[in-house]
Design a protein that fits this description.
about 40% helix; 3 domains; Methyltransferase, Cobalt-precorrin-4 Transmethylase, Domain 2; about 290 residues; 10 strands; alpha/beta
């Protein structure tokens, strides 16, 4: 067992410092003090972080650390800690390691016996969730889904029966395709798109996935939140199986839908829509 005493004086420490996701004033006092006091800051994008540091008058030197050089930077971080100085790690925005690089460094620092301390602050996912109008507990943060539709739908099918609010990040150029896949796999659930959080053009788009809609052109960071599976949604899945069994017994599709809806005390149209979605999903998997 390894026990970490995070605040023993004099320890060389790796600080994971959360930075603003848009509004510069959201940097905490403790975060600013930490960035001022460490020996060096490992930053995902030194050009972007330079703006933040200049705003607060922080002159601590920076070293780039991103997904393409993280493996190389592990040794550099350890070397600094071995000299007895503390270092910080920051991402472009928000809390480090949350859909951002840094996991290798954290694991290596822990294995080397040095403390890792998070300086809490902004997170796009937890900024969006309370204002979304969806259930705040339980929730599941997934991050970025795969870029390709087939892989994306495969992941969504594994999440489809979970009674958790689902939270994703997505890039603007993939949002339309993502919403199409959410609709195909998850059906008529409540969905919220939160964009440009804490910035001037912050906005929330609230709709249901079965709505016919054209999304406006979206820019900037996007958080997508989807209602978790409910008893009604799970009932629909069971009803689809019921319809298939009735059809296997020789009933027509419409007759099977009518009988399944009546037996399960569901609206016929709900069962019909659920059955059509299931058929479409099977066709897409072929």
């Amino acid at each position: 067992m390894q026990i970490q005493a995070s605040f023993d004086a004099g320890q060389a420490t790796l600080y994971l410092v959360a930075t603003p996701i848009g509004h510069l004033a959201d940097l905490t006092v403790r975060a600013a003090e930490t960035l001022q006091e460490v020996s060096v800051i490992f930053a995902e994008d030194t050009r972007q972080s330079k703006v933040l540091l200049a705003h607060y008058g922080i002159r601590t030197p920076m070293i780039s650390m991103h997904q393409h050089n993280e493996a190389e930077r592990v040794e550099t971080v350890i070397e600094h800690l071995e000299t007895g100085v503390s270092v910080a790690l920051i991402s472009d925005a928000g809390t480090p390691l949350i859909s951002d690089p840094g996991a290798r460094i954290v694991q290596a620092v822990i294995e080397a016996g040095y403390p890792v301390v998070t300086i809490p602050g902004p997170s796009a996912a937890l900024t969006a969730l309370p204002a979304s109008g969806l259930s705040t507990e339980p929730y599941l943060f997934y991050g970025f889904l795969p870029a390709k539709s087939a892989a994306r739908q495969k992941i969504l099918r594994t999440l489809s029966t979970l009674p958790f609010t689902l939270i994703f990040y997505e890039a603007p150029h993939r949002i339309d395709a993502m919403i199409a896949d959410l609709t195909a796999v998850l059906g008529p659930r409540h969905c919220v798109i939160a964009r440009e959080l804490t910035k001037r053009f912050e906005s929330y788009l609230r709709f249901t996935l079965d709505q016919s809609l054209t999304l406006p052109a979206l820019k900037g960071e996007i958080v997508v939140l989807v209602e978790g599976a409910t008893d009604v949604l799970l009932d629909h899945d069971d009803a689809v199986v019921h319809v298939e069994l009735l059809m296997a017994d020789g009933h027509s599709e419409m007759e099977a839908i009518k009988r399944a809806a009546k037996a399960r005390h569901l609206k016929k149209n709900e069962v019909y829509m659920a059955f059509q979605r299931a058929k479409k999903q099977r066709e897409q998997r072929k």
